Amino acid sequence: MLDENALRKPGFTAGRQVLMADGQYWTLPKPKLRFAPRVSAAGVEVWGGASFGPESDALLDVLYGVEPAPSLERLRVKFEVAVRLLSANYDLKPQDFAQLLVLEPGNPESEARWDQLGEAVTGSPPKPSPAI
C-alpha cells in the first residue's frame, strides 16, 4: 500500500482531500481563480475561472465542454488532470496512479470519488456529510 504521508513532496500544498481507490485520503492543491479578456469581433468577454495555471486551461476547457471533444477524449483528460494534481503534491511512480484513480461506472464509491475530484478541480467546497 502507498504511504500518502511519506510520498508528500517538499512543496506540498494544502487543499482538497479526496478518498482515493486505495482507501486513503490524498490532498489535491486548490485551484486559483484566473480571468482574462477574450477579444473578438463581437466585443470583449471575460474568460476564465478555476485554474491550475495556463498549461491546464486547455485541459479544463475540454473537460467541461468549452471545447468539443469525444467522450473518450474527455475521459482521458479527466485522468490527466487527476494525475497532474496528484503529481503536484506527491512523488508518485507511473504505476501508482492505477491504484489511486480507478473509475468504475455504476459503483457508488467510485462515482463519489470522481465527484470529489471534479469538485476539487473547480474549487467547489465539499458536499456536507449527512447527519447521523
What does this molecule look like?
By secondary structure, the protein is an alpha+beta fold. It has one domain (15-122). It contains four helices and four strands. It has helices at 54-63, 71-89, 97-100, 108-122, and strands at residues 15-19, 25-29, 32-40, 43-51. A two-stranded antiparallel ribbon has the order 1-2. A two-stranded antiparallel sheet has the order 3-4. β1 and β2 (25-29) form a beta hairpin. α1 (54-63) runs antiparallel to α2. The protein is globular and about 55 Å long. The protein starts with 14 loop residues before the first strand and ends in a 10-residue tail after the last helix. The mean pLDDT is 82.
Shape: globular
Largest sheet: 2 strands, antiparallel
**Order of strands across the main sheet:** 1-2
Compressed to H and E, one letter per element, the order equals EEEEHHHH
Task: Name a few traits of the molecule.
132 residues, alpha+beta
Secondary-structure topology with pairs:
Layout: E1 15-19, E2 25-29, E3 32-40, E4 43-51, H1 54-63, H2 71-89, H3 97-100, H4 108-122
Antiparallel strand pairs: 1-2, 3-4
Task: Please sum up the structure shown.
With 132 residues, the protein is α+β, with helices and mostly antiparallel strands. The chain contains four helices and four strands. The protein has helices spanning 54-63, 71-89, 97-100, 108-122; strands at residues 15-19, 25-29, 32-40, 43-51.
